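Wait, mind explaining this?

_____
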Amino acid sequence: MSLVQRINRLYATGLGIGELKIIPGTLGSLLAVIIYFLIPEIVSNPIFILLIFFSGVLSCNLDEKRTSLKDDSRIVIDEMAGMWLTFFLRPNLLVSQVIIGFVLFRFFDILKPGLIDSSQDLAGGLGVMVDDLLAGLVSAGLLQIIIVVMK
């Protein structure tokens, strides 16, 4: 594996967290939560979300070409992007709200109802990233409703 491929793999697997054999998507989502708590202003920036989306598509394309695996479960940049999109509308959530957002995102990411599931049919890295972004978008909307109702 070339240096570029190694760096790409490190990025795509969430600094290698996706290489762990047990629940890589959930671990990638947890890493995204930790990063959210460390730098919420950056993670909630729309330019950051777009950058992660486009770089994720490119990264997934590169990894898919190298491995010939479609949506390799060790790739977690998609879960991270979806998790951050869940928190996008509110940069300073309470811990309880982050937990609710995490549960919502994992629910929609795992079950993939309707359009979320069919979006995986998109080619290459786009198909890898879009389903998680749709799960994040639905989760963000529901989280906002829950926060308003809880007040």
